[in-house]
TrEMBL record:
Extent of Acidic residues compositional bias: 242-252
Basic and acidic residues bias locations: 35-45
Record InterPro entries: Bms1/Tsr1 (IPR039761), BMS1_TSR1_C (IPR007034)
Gene: TSR1
Protein name (Swiss-Prot/TrEMBL): Ribosome maturation factor
Biological process, per Gene Ontology: endonucleolytic cleavage of tricistronic rRNA transcript (SSU-rRNA, 5.8S rRNA, LSU-rRNA); maturation of SSU-rRNA from tricistronic rRNA transcript (SSU-rRNA, 5.8S rRNA, LSU-rRNA)
Length: 300
């Protein structure tokens, strides 16, 4: 071959992409980056408002194990939902809850029955009660009695269309303890939130948070109530008791707090529907780490 010396050569562009080298970081550095990433996403409520239904998988957790109870839906509003797969996860008394084949007809029948007979207004009557608890029997305050329509002593899936007040500071998380007042009943419940509306497959998206000024369907298992009854939603708030004064001996005891009810929302009772499906949606997201022609590695 002839000597070319330091002669320069020139070649055309290659049809193959340039290869890239990725250096695997040490485990300590990986853990540090993961903690920094999680710290940037610490405020879960704000993340839910901006990026709802996104979940994070730990690097050492397999997605097929973490998402084993999830299923794929081609269309969230149209695709049919197989309820037979949910039976192993049903509550123990789910099959014993009150169900209605014709809610409107049953409601009209119960109202008509209540208008027939009974005691006319303004009459004084004697009411005899059996098995009255001692705390109720010894109360100095007068006792109030309320009549119930047919089936209102039974339990069913209670749904209310609830709106969280816009002046509430923090969003409300599903399964958070609330105090619900509708009619003569005041209940302490842990409802779950879901989107309202009518869908062909009766599947509604589970809401992890109810943000101020927004509306959702709150559901729990409780006593049946006929009609569109107005609802008041309260929440317990801990505050310092202003009536407790400091002792004169100078010893400071533990702080005394009292509970008061804050009105945080209002709503209306909607028809109970045991076939209403509340589905939790999961969206997997992450940061691209390695990008090749056909394979993309996403971490975190």
């Amino acid at each position: 071959f002839p000597e070319t010396g330091d002669a320069m050569t020139e070649g055309g562009a290659s049809e193959y992409p340039q290869s890239e080298m990725f250096v695997d970081r040490a485990p300590e550095e990986e853990e540090q980056q993961l903690e920094e990433y999680r710290a940037s996403r610490r405020n879960e409520a704000n993340e839910d408002l901006e990026f709802p239904d996104e979940i994070e998988l730990h690097p050492h957790v397999l997605a097929r194990e973490r998402l084993a109870r999830y299923r794929g839906l081609k269309n969230f509003k149209i695709s049919p939902w197989e309820t037979s797969e949910d039976r192993p996860y049903e509550p123990e008394d789910w099959r014993r809850l009150l169900q209605f084949a014709d809610y409107k007809g049953s409601k009209n029948k119960a109202v008509r029955e209540a208008l027939v007979g009974g005691v006319n207004p303004g009459h004084r009557v004697d009411v005899h009660l059996r098995a009255v608890p001692a705390p109720l029997r010894n109360r100095p305050q007068p006792v109030s009695l309320f009549s119930l329509l047919r089936h209102e002593h039974k339990h069913t899936v209670v749904n209310i269309n609830m709106t969280l007040n816009s002046d509430v500071e923090a969003p409300l998380k599903s399964k958070e303890e609330l105090i619900i007042q509708y009619g003569p009943r005041r209940l302490v419940v842990n409802p779950i939130f879901s989107t309202s509306g009518v869908t062909p497959n009766n599947v509604h998206k589970f809401d992890r948070y109810l943000h101020p000024g927004r509306s959702a369907i709150a559901s729990w298992i409780g006593p049946m109530t006929w009609g569109s009854v107005p609802v008041l939603v309260f929440k317990n708030k801990q505050e310092a008791d202003p009536e407790v004064l400091d002792g004169g001996d100078g010893d400071e005891g533990p702080p005394t707090t009292s509970e008061r009810l804050d009105l945080i929302g209002t709503g209306t009772v909607v028809a109970p529907d045991q076939s209403r499906v509340v589905a939790k949606r999961a969206i997997l997201t992450g940061h691209p780490f390695k990008i090749n022609r056909k394979v993309v590695t996403v971490r975190y």
